[in-house]
What does this fold into?
Amino acid sequence: MKATSQTEIHSYLQENRIFSPPDAFSANAQISSMEEYRALYDRSIRDPEEFWSQIAEQLHWFRRWENTLVWDPPFAQWFVGGQTNLAYNCLDRHLLTARRNKAALIWEGENGESRTLTYFELHREVCKLANVLTDLGVKHGYRVGIYLPLIPEAVISMLACARIGAVHSVVFGGFSAEALRERMNDAAATVIITADGGWRRGGVIALKQSVDEAATGIPSLRHIIVVKRLDHAAPHSWVEGRDHWWHRLLAVASAQHDAPPLDAEHPLFILYTSGTTGKPKGIVHTTGGYMTQSYLTTKWIFDIRDTDTFWCTAEVGWVTGHSYVVYGPLLNGATTFMYEGAPMHPAPDRWWSLIDRWGINILYTAPTAIRAFMRQGDSYPAKHQLASLRLLGTVGEPINPEAWMWYHQHIGRERCPIVDTWWQTETGAILISPLPGAVPTKPGSATLPFFGIVPDVVNRDGESLPAGEGGFLVLRSPWPAMLRTIHRDAERYAKQYWSDIPGCYFTGDGARRDADGYFWLMGRVDDVINVAGHRLGTAEIESALVSHPQVAEAAVVGRPDELKGTAIAAFVTLEAGTKPSQLLKQELRDHVAHEIGSIARPEDIRFAETLPKTRSGKIMRRLLRDLAAGQETVGDTTTLEDLSVLACLREDEET
Ligand code: ATP
Ligand code: MG
It folds into this structure.
């Protein structure tokens, strides 16, 4: 149902009563009704310490905490005095149960090869690497860089670090040597774990070569561990004493390792944000709170069951990969699925064949991926059964109703609820989301806050705004998985998140709440456009554009305008096979005016083959803003997926 407006989608949903998940799926084992959600939510925010204590008790602690929360704004500590071990909770805890020889991890490579590791096997590998790292001199609190393809070794590496109390910093394998150097230097890593290469779209990514290049600029670096992923390694150098093959080290390592008790506030990882708004920030997460919340959100939002195979399509280099590829599913004893390669390689239906082949039950992905599949056409998913799927999720940006509908019909086959989950690298876990079977969805809304979370929509002074009014999304109280600081820059942490709006954590996002209290994300506040005194969310205008039958994707920015102050400029990617024309431009302008109102009618429309995105697939509107304003300098582009996109956009401007 491509040729349809947002209004039509909404009425379709209302008529078909799919605001509420169908009965067959309303059996959320934990929370089964809206009343239950409301009652527990109220309790959880009346006494968050009591609530989170009860959850933390479901996990293993070597020593119980004395204080659930020590809050010295803006610095929080959770489960103070408690000692635990995240890797122990992900692995050892299950070895005494029927999960012992259940698949913890199923992996498929781009070339079709696969590996399955049971909890028992994964535990062994993690123990061996823990011993290897210790032998290489990695101590408690040391930083270890992980720069790997999406292969099981990435998970083993993260868990081995967590096990010995080393702080992991995963850098997405698609990043350049320069981006790696910048991050590893900031983290002062002593060891980097990499591979001789990785597969992507049939080509080889020369990871070790990038590490070699970066290494000269990382004075703290002592050792490089190299996973052998390729038959014929891409060219790279080898420094005796510094470089070690993973398989050689592990072949002689002991699989005996006792997980040491670590303080709840022991740093667990440093992860750099996607860089959509500027230079990436080194976000620091700690052990106990992050563990408790990634555990619970996976359990309740994905309603995870022992039989579930969970596929979160994120790279482990993003926070989504940390919390919902690795820690959340393993803490819950589920099976996590990982796929190494590009979504459409070698055929546009690769993902759908993976779902059938591995019996995937839960699929969690990003709207940008969904739109890319829509562009390929409906025939690809139609070739597959997709019968094992029972729950779908999205994250990363607001999902436009058009994409929501496609996901619902063509992938969820109208039977799977969709959870639209709002959160950030900084929040560590999902904070706003529907609960399948309890909190009904509204397409395009992340719906209601998770337990213990107090979001609000406020003005500059921190005053709550009434329903329907757009404002700043803030969080009014601390939560266990919150970031503790920015690495080596507590001042920037306080300034960036806790100074703009009095007494609150400021998310940087704009939102409004509807009469039911549902949250609608409007995009980043830096992106919100003020046209003649009206505040317009970029997400809303983009969504209107994409609801036009010929539009595949759109990005909207403001540009200075003498008359209005700001005019709306839209960059539009058309459906495959559609020709750009002046007529179409006019039609699109009218379409937006019809969908939202004439105030939102774009002044400029530019057709573009592709839009500039971060490597996590998010549109970098700040670059487009500069382009729309005719500025030459386009700021920091290190996280941009494909630099040539900018050149193309500039050329288009000239023609
Ligand atoms: P940087 O902070 O470096 O600019 P980033 O904000 O893109 O990068 P992430 O932490 O990966 O890095 O992304 C979090 C942001 O993604 C949120 O602040 C929000 O803008 C957006 N987002 C995530 N999930 C959703 C969602 N379900 N609906 C709307 N927006 C979302
Ligand atoms: Mg951010």
Observations:
- The first strand starts at residue 67 and ends at 72.
- The pocket of magnesium ion (ligand 2) is lined by residues 273, 424, 508 (CB under 6 Å).
- The CA atoms of residues 57 and 208 lie 42 Å apart.
